[in-house]
C-alpha cells in the first residue's frame, strides 16, 4: 500500500515539474517574440525616416535647380502639391523613380495615392515654407514633412522615438528635428525674415538660440 502511495506522489510531483517547465518555456518564447517585434518596429521606423530624409533631399535639389533656372525664387503662392506637379512637368523630378512626395510612414497619404493616383494636398506628405529664394540664409528651412508623419513610438509603454520632423534647408541639407526644436527653428526663421524685409540685421541661429536659451534637439 505504501509503495502505491509513493508512486502516486512521484507522478504528481513529476507532473507539477513538467507544468512549471512548460510555463517557463512559454514565457521565454513570448518574451523573445516581443523583443523581436520591438526590434522590427525600430528597424522599420529608422528605415522610413531615412527614406523620408532622402525624399526631401531629392525634392530640395529639384527646387534649387528650378529656382536657379528661373528668377531665383523658390515657389511662391503655391502649395507643395502644385510645386511638385510643376517639378515633374518641367523634368526636374523623374516620375519613374516613384512618388517621393509621400513619406513612407504616412499610411493615410499612401492610401489616398492608391485611391486617386493624383498629386494633391491629400497625397503629399510634405510642406513648403513660402517666401524664400536662393539667396536666403542656408540654414532656413525650405520644406518639411507634415506633423505626425513620424509619431512618438512606444512599445510596451517604453518610448523608443519622440515625435520628429524631417526638414531640408536652403543649402539642401536634410536632417531630423524634434517637434519642439522644429518650432524653435521656425520661430527664429520667421523673425529673421521679418528683419530682412525691414532691412534689419540677420542673427545666425547659434547666436539667436543662445539668447533665447533654446537649442536643437536632434535624434
List the helices and strands and how they pair.
Elements (H helix, E strand, L loop, with lengths): L1 H68 L10 H10 L17 H10 L9 E3 L12 E5 L7 E3 L2 E4 L2 E6 L4 E5 H19 L7 H8 L7
Antiparallel strand pairs: 1-2, 2-5, 3-4, 5-6
Verbal overview:
It is a single chain. The protein has helices spanning 2-69, 80-89, 107-116, 179-197, 205-212, and strands at residues 126-128, 141-145, 153-155, 158-161, 164-169, 174-178. It has 219 residues and is an alpha+beta fold. The strands form 2 sheets. Strands 1-2-5-6 form a 4-stranded antiparallel β-sheet, sandwiched between helices. Strands 3-4 form a two-stranded antiparallel sheet. The longest helix is centred in the first third of the chain and has 68 residues, at 2-69.
Looking at this protein, list some descriptive labels.
219 residues, two-stranded antiparallel ribbon, four-stranded antiparallel sheet, single chain, flat, 6 strands, 5 helices, alpha+beta
Describe the structure concisely for a colleague.
The protein is of the alpha+beta class. The chain is 53% helix and 12% strand.
**How helix-rich are the residues, as a percent range?**
40-55%
Q: What about the largest sheet?
A: 4 strands, antiparallel
How many domains in all? 1
The ordered H/E elements are HHHEEEEEEHH
User: Radius of gyration from the CA trace?
Assistant: 27 Å
What do the pLDDT scores average to? 81
Amino acid at each position: 500500500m505504501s509503495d502505491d502511495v509513493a508512486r502516486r506522489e512521484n507522478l504528481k510531483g513529476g507532473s507539477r515539474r513538467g507544468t512549471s517547465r512548460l510555463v517557463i518555456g512559454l514565457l521565454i518564447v513570448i518574451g523573445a517574440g516581443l523583443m523581436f517585434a520591438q526590434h522590427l518596429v525600430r528597424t522599420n521606423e529608422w528605415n522610413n525616416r531615412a527614406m523620408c530624409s532622402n525624399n526631401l533631399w531629392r525634392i530640395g535639389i529639384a527646387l534649387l535647380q528650378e529656382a536657379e533656372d528661373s528668377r531665383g525664387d523658390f515657389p511662391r503662392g503655391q502649395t507643395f502639391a502644385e510645386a511638385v506637379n510643376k517639378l515633374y512637368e518641367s523634368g526636374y523630378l523623374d516620375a519613374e523613380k516613384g512618388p517621393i512626395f509621400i513619406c513612407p510612414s504616412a499610411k493615410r497619404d499612401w492610401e489616398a495615392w492608391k485611391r486617386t493616383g493624383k498629386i494633391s494636398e491629400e497625397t503629399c506628405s510634405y510642406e513648403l515654407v513660402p517666401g524664400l529664394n536662393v539667396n536666403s540664409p542656408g540654414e532656413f528651412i525650405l520644406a518639411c514633412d507634415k506633423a505626425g508623419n513620424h509619431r512618438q513610438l512606444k512599445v510596451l509603454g517604453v518610448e523608443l522615438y519622440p515625435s520628429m520632423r524631417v526638414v531640408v534647408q536652403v543649402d539642401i541639407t536634410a536632417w531630423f528635428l524634434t517637434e519642439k526644436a522644429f518650432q524653435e527653428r521656425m520661430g527664429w526663421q520667421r523673425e529673421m525674415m521679418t528683419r530682412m524685409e525691414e532691412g534689419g540685421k540677420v542673427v545666425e541661429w547659434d547666436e539667436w538660440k543662445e539668447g533665447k536659451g533654446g537649442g536643437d534637439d536632434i535624434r
